[in-house]
Each structure stands twice: as C-alpha cells, then as structure tokens.
Amino acid sequence: MNAIQPNRVRRRRAFLTVFLKEVRENLRDRRTLISAFVTGPLLTPLIFVMLISVSIHRELDKAEQPLKVPVIGAQYAPNLIDALKAGGIVPQPAIANPEQAVREQAADLVLRLSAEYPKAWRRGEPVQVELIYDSSQRDTGSSVDRVNQLVQSYARQQGVMRLVARGLSPGTAWPVQVARRDQATAESRAVLLFNMLPYLFVLTIFIGGMYLAIDLTAGERERQSLEPLFANPVPRWKILLGKLAAICTFSTASLLICLLAFSLVGRFLPTDKLGMEINLGWHFAANVLLLQWPMIVLLAALQSLVAAFAKSYREAQTYLSLLMMLPILPSILLMVMPVKPQDWMYAVPLLGQHLGIIDLLRGTGVAPLHMLLCLAGTAAAALLAVAVGMQLYRSERLAISG
Amino acid sequence: MIEVKDLHKAFGDVRAVDGVGFTARDGEITGLLGPNGAGKTTTLRMLYTLMTPDRGQVLVDGIDAAVDPLAVRRRLGVLPDARGLYKRLTARENIDYFARLQGLPEDELRTRREALVQALDMGDIADRRTEGFSQGQRVKTAIARALIHDPGNVILDEPTNGLDVMATRALRQFMLKLRAEGRCVLFSSHIMQEVGALCDRIVVIARGRVVADETPDALRAQTGEANLEDAFVKIIGSDEGLAA
C-alpha cells in the first residue's frame, strides 16, 4: 500500500502542475492576455453591433425619410406627382443628362415622363413612365422599389376608377390575386441578420487559445525548454493534456467574456423597430457554452497539432491564421446555398454548432436529439485530435530544436 | 551508476553514434570528450531517454532505460545542451516546476530548493524572472532545476559552455562537491583542460565511436605524450574541433 500511494499522488500532480504553470506563465504575458481577454472577445461584439445598428438605421431611415427624386416632365402629370408627394417623394427639378447622372452616382434614380403623357392619358391609352437607375449600386435598391411601388399603386387606383366609370367590376382586370402570408416570427426574421454570430463565437474561441497553443508547443521548442521538460519522469501525454487544459481555460474564458458582452450589448440593438426579437440573455449564453465545449477542446487540440508541426513561433502563427479561415466555411456555405437542415448535419463539427446557435436565435431552442448529435459528433472529433496529438508528442523529433 | 552498452543511432544515412559503450561509476567524475559533432550530445540524449537507440542498452542503477524510462528519469539529474528556462517565471518558480514534476512533497521541495540556491550562490537572483539572465545565471538555474530531486546520477552536457572564468571555476567546484557526495557525475566537453583537471575517467569519442576509456594518467602513459592535449590529438587522429 505504502509503495502505491505516493505514485498516485504524483500522477495526479503532474497534470495539475503543468496546467497551473502554463496558466500562471501566460497570465504574465501581455500579448496573450490582451488577445484572449480584450481584443478577441470584445472586438467581435462591438463590430457586430456597430454593423447591425448601422444597417438597421439605414433601412429605417430610407423607409421614413422623404426621398428626393429628380423628375423630368413633371408638368405633364400633376396628379401622378401629387400621388408621389403623398408617398413621401420630393420631386426635384429636371436634370439634363439623367443616364450619366445615375452612372456617376450624382442621383440615385431619375423619373422621366414623356411629353406624350397628357395626350395618351386623355385617350385612355397606356403610358410609359421611365425609372432611370443603376442596379449595381447596391444602395439604390430600396429607393427604386419605393418609387416603383408608388407608381404602380397609383396606376392600379386609376385603372379601378376607369373600370368603375365604364360600369365594370374592378375584379375582371385582376382574375388572380396574391395574398402574402409571411410565417416568419419576430425571432426568425432576426436570424438573417445574425447568421454571422456562430462564426464569431468560434473565432473568439480560436483567438482566445491561439497564442497559448503556439507558446506551449512551437514556442517552447524554439526556446529549447521542451528537452529539459521531457527529462522529467512524467509521460509526455500527461504534459500534453496539462497544456491542452490550459489552452481550453483561456479560450473558455474568452468565450464567456464574449457572451457576456453580447448579452449586455444585445439590449441596445434597435431590432424591435424592424419587428425582430433577439434574446442574447443567460439562457442563450448557457446553451451556446454547452454547444461549444467539445469545440473548445477540438480547436485546442488542432491548434496544438498545427503548432507542433511548425518549425518556429512565426511559422506556427502563419499556419494558425490560415486555420482560422476554416470555421467560416459553414456560415458561408449556408449563406450561399441555403439547405434544409438534416439531422446528420448536427453531428458535423462547426456545422452542428452553427445550426444549433441559429436554432437558439430563432427562439425554437435546440431539439434534444440535435444537441446530443452535436455534442457527440464534435466530442468524437476532439478525442481523435487529442489522440493524434498524443501520438505526435511521442515523436523523437518533437523535442529537438537544433 | 550509468552503464552504456554498444549504443547505435543513425539519422538517415548519418551514423551519429556507432557502437558507444562505457561505464560511469558512483563517486567519480566521468568526462565524455570529443570534437564537435562526435556524437556526445546524441549519446547523452539516449541516456536520459529523449531518444531511443537503434541498438544497444542503457542501464541506470541497473534499470534498463528501454524497459522503465520513467524510473530512469527519476534517478537522473539532467542539464541538457538546451538550457531552456521559462523566462516569464522567476528562478525559484522554474526550480519548483521541475520539483513538482519530479513528484517532490512541498516541504521537501522547499528545503532542497533553498539548499541548492545557497550551494550555487544564487540568492540574489532567485526571485527575479529569468528573462535577461546572464549565461552563468542561466546555467546555475538550470543546474538547480536538474538536481532538485536529489538524483544519484548527474548528466551535464557541455556545462561550461559560454561561461566566464569565474563562473567556470565555481561550476568545477560544484561538480567536485557532487562527486564528494558520492554521486555519479557524467559530463561532456570539448575542452581538454577541463576534462583533465576534473575527471577520474575520460571517455574519448570520435566519429560516433569510443576511441579511448582511461584515467588521465593512463592516457598520457598510453600515448607516450606528457601533455594531455597532444595525447588527445594522437588518439583522435586529428585536432579538428578540439579547443584548449
């Protein structure tokens, strides 16, 4: 009994010793601290909120504010102009070369009425109203739609009046009518805007652990401290586990700060003005953390693997910034080709977390099966990555820097 | 005691160590002497189980390094060629880290550490972060770290490399003290004066092989040269890579 006891104590301590030392050492490194606790977790919520606020305000502004549109030939159709004015359009004096003005972005759009307008109108013939715009100017889309809709509804209104004047039912002219029934809830409308959020969380985890992962493998080898470390009577895999635990601690802290920032900042988003509802409170944060924990381990193991392959600190930095592009794939993929989420997709690391967080934002919550698939799939990948890391740590060349 | 039997290690086509065998006894200082690139560091790396030999056997206090590497590492104090301190930790914290990895209880750790800090005369630097340490201060810290668990066998790879005269003298005194305590001290060097002044036994390595294994006096007698330096040149067959 006596012979076994000290061994047991020793074993548990090796993991803890490595873990505590790495945490303490890295808490003394300003660059690691800033990237893990300040820039990583706080920059993304700030940028995100700024982007969202700007785009929301812009949409709101456009819908409510008077829109100035140069009109050519306004004198031919005073009634149409009145209808436009009622819709918030402010007619501007005519300009000489509307096509060029639009191309040069001097004007968003120009309305042109032909001199034939009054004659055709009196005869009851269809008349043309020209909208001159440049659809490659992304900004003008909503203004064009707005003017277009005002003209259309004026036309329909006049058409109805003509039919009634001839004793016909207005319905004869529109045998089919579309009734739009939008099933989007206030929460699900918000999802479109928040599609980036899952990626931002993964990015935060990644940045939070990145400097540690580099320091604990490539950095330690570059400083030549790996060789004396391995001369200690501790199996290398235990050293690796201690290091991974330190990386995970930093990236988890990073994610927590990020979630906290989002829950605070989420309250100031004017999403309700667009008829959206978004809840980034405690419930959301806890679920994100649950979804992400195997991802935290997986990323720590992957980062360590990549850093262990690199010959130097700098090389590891380069490789890891390339690896950082990987987590954006599911977000982009789902944006480019929106597919209906299948059960198996939840088991795919990154994709599963993405879908899960979208479910949370939608307000439906993650189904238990999906949560289980997501955790199991990513945990399996994480175990595999850790096992590969352990194998790599056994290699003779790992410790030798010269 | 360290016994090395017929070690071989090749990196690709290069046979770095090609049949090295010797014995380093307790209470003696054994010097591993050879020109740069002779295979000293590779031999030592196999001793402290960082590398696995292609062939041959390493026994430390009778324990086979291939069978129980952890037990072997527990009996060895190692100062590798790469000193590798953690620069954001103080000297004391560096020592404590290795002590805990060796599994030392906290009270024993404190007594051992303070004894070493005193023996190596590093009281004034012990609580400073090792970033910016001089070469001598770095070696002292690394030696204290290597000896914290009171090992019976001490392996030092080129311990005086980069040290000034005073630091070298202090280190030699320290090695003599280790011998007096009955430890087995094995160190490598390419500096003949050092080996001649300190060693009870000299193992000369050249091109991955042991070319001589004698006491300094026997070496002089064997080669018929009164001067150790001339004796080495004669044994190795060239004076390439040797320093006086």
Describe the structure.
Chain A: Keywords: Membrane, Transmembrane, Transmembrane helix. Chain A: It holds the Pfam family ABC2_membrane_3. Chain A: It is found in: Membrane. Chain A is mainly α. Chain A has 15 helices and four strands. The relative contact order of chain A is 0.11. Helices cover 65% and strands 5% of the residues of chain A. Chain A has a four-stranded mixed sheet with strand order 2-1-3-4. Chain B is an alpha/beta fold. In chain B, strands 6-7-8-3-9-10 form a six-stranded mixed sheet, sandwiched between helices. In chain B, strands 2-1-4-5 form a four-stranded antiparallel sheet. In chain B, strand 4 and strand 5 form a beta hairpin. In chain B, helix 8 crosses helix 9. At the A-B interface, helix 1 and helix 9 of A face helix 2, strand 6, helix 3 and helix 5 of B.
Euclidean distance between termini CA atoms of chain A:
44 Å
How many helices of chain B? The count is 9
User: Which oligomeric form is depicted?
Assistant: heterodimer
Mind describing the biggest β-sheet of chain A? 4 strands, mixed
How confident overall, as mean pLDDT of chain B? Answer: 90
Number of strands of chain A: 4
Biggest sheet statistics of chain B:
6 strands, mixed
Strand content of the residues of chain B, in percent?
25-35%
The outline of chain B comes out as globular
Please provide the count of β strands of chain B. Answer: 10
* Class by SSE composition of chain A: mainly alpha
Sketch the topology of chain B as an H/E string, one letter per element: EEEHEEHEHHHEHEHEEHH
| Secondary structure: helix percent of chain B | 25-40%
